[in-house]
């Protein structure tokens, strides 16, 4: 597949990194020599310096032979124009990054496909949806449901209260008599471990599991975690992510939003009638205490400053807040959440890159998600009548060591699986895989 990416910033670079593992023919276009050189030094991609709205530049990239043109520069107008021109020059599919959320809400009325734009994505809107998902379980660092919860991906932090601490996976088998959860990943000091029987849980590990419906409570009990119902939420920052988050949450939760810009507060009050707007500095600890940070069930920090967001969440944790989520611009910060005490750090560009990756793989993969900070993807496949995975029971399948099968949904019922499991056609299989072996994993399901 020939893929052209316009914009070699964080979003474009991460997307190119995901696709480079797939042995795709990738061309990166950007006007900045430095970011192109960085991409060339770290990825197996072709680079072209110039504007993606230039016909000659797109023709140099051989856009007429492109299976996909993805425009993800920081300028919305450039992205829309790139997609329109690229489609006119022969690109099969186009994706454009936008910042104006109205395009999303009015996509049917606009009928963007008629002008050459097949898909639009908003990192800010996707980040808000991600925050909404993360709030479902206060005691978990991450959660994602397959088939309306028939299987779930959950994440917990291993601390001194956990029964898992200092035990290997083999040793913890007796703690799982109903076989209703499977450990699929451990994040330790920025390193992702695809665990096997000899791997041991250590203090401060972020451990991830695929669970049957009854398995979630069992994992939380083993981890010594208590679920707290979230009702009151404080959002720090009237950014686009903050606004979108407040809109998505205000019907269900009591929302208090703190924004430093006084004039912006007046606009936010009109735009968010169900949200209490406070004019103030989210870094002001006295203000946070005055506004009842100790009575909040969750704090979401989405100002334009990563350090402010992290510090605000640490203050919240110090005041007993159960759930903290901080938005960070630097993708390298994502790994820090394991060590600094913030429940989850999110990056809107990383979320957007994973969304586009899912869009590209549509048809081969039923579902795809990522875990914040974990160097692996969670994928859901459907077993075809002649799939390779049907040939043997699980223990005898030569599955990659850097991937693990977490569970199977069969006839609407979720099952975690053991070595004697034999797959059947139409099984929906949940797999955690490092990016570099996704292509190999796919081969078992074609």
TrEMBL record:
PROSITE patterns: RCK_C (PS51202), RCK_N (PS51201). Keywords: Ion transport, NAD, Potassium, Potassium transport, Transport. The gene is trkA. The lineage of its organism: Bacteria, Pseudomonadati, Bacteroidota, Cytophagia, Cytophagales. InterPro entries: K_uptake_TrkA, NAD(P)-bd_dom_sf, RCK_C, RCK_C_sf, RCK_N, Trk_Ktr_HKT_K-transport. Gene3D superfamilies: NAD(P)-binding Rossmann-like Domain, Regulator of K+ conductance, C-terminal domain. It comes from the Bacteria. This is Trk system potassium uptake protein TrkA. Residues 141-225, 366-446 form the RCK C-terminal domain. SUPFAM superfamilies: NAD(P)-binding Rossmann-fold domains (SSF51735), TrkA C-terminal domain-like (SSF116726). Residues 1-121, 230-346 form the RCK N-terminal domain.
């Amino acid at each position: 597949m020939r893929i052209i990416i316009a914009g070699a910033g964080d979003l474009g670079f991460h997307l190119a990194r995901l696709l480079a593992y797939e042995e795709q023919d990738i061309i990166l276009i950007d006007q900045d020599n430095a970011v192109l050189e960085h991409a060339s030094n770290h990825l197996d991609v072709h680079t072209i310096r110039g504007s993606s709205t230039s016909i000659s530049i797109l023709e140099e990239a051989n856009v007429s032979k492109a299976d996909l043109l993805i425009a993800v520069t920081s300028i919305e107008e450039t992205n829309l124009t790139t997609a329109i021109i690229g489609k006119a020059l022969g690109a099969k599919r186009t994706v454009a990054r936008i910042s104006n959320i109205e395009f999303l809400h009015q996509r049917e009325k606009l009928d963007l496909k008629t002008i050459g734009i097949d898909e639009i994505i908003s990192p800010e809107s996707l980040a808000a949806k991600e925050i909404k998902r993360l709030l479902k379980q206060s005691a978990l660092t991450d959660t994602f449901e397959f088939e309306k919860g028939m299987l779930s991906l959950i994440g917990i932090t291993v601390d001194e209260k956990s029964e898992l601490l200092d035990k290997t996976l083999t040793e913890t088998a007796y703690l799982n008599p109903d076989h209703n959860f499977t450990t699929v990943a451990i994040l330790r000091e920025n390193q992702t471990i695809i665990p096997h029987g000899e791997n041991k849980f250590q203090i401060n590990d972020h451990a991830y599991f695929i669970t049957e419906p009854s398995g979630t409570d069992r994992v939380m009990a083993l981890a010594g975690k208590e679920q707290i119902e979230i009702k009151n939420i404080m959002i720090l920052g009237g950014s686009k992510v903050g606004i979108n988050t407040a809109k998505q949450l205000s019907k269900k939760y009591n929302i208090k939003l703190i924004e430093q810009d006084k004039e912006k507060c007046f606009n936010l009050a009109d735009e968010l009638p169900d949200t209490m707007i406070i004019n103030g500095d989210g870094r002001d600890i006295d203000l946070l205490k005055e506004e009842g940070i100790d009575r909040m069930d969750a704090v979401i920090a989405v100002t334009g400053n990563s350090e402010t967001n992290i510090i605000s969440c640490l203050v919240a944790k110090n005041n007993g807040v159960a759930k903290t989520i901080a938005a960070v611009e630097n993708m390298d910060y994502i790994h820090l959440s394991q060590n600094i005490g913030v429940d989850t750090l999110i990056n809107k560009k990383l979320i957007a890159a994973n969304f586009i990756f899912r869009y590209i793989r549509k048809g081969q993969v039923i579902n795809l998600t990522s875990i914040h900070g974990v160097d692996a993807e969670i994928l859901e496949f459907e077993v075809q009548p002649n799939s390779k995975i049907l040939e043997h029971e699980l223990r005898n399948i030569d599955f990659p060591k850097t991937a693990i099968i977490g569970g199977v949904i069969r006839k609407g019922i979720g099952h975690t699986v053991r070595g004697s499991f034999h797959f059947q056609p139409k099984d929906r299989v949940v797999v955690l895989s490092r990016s570099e072996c996704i292509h190999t994993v796919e081969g078992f399901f074609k």
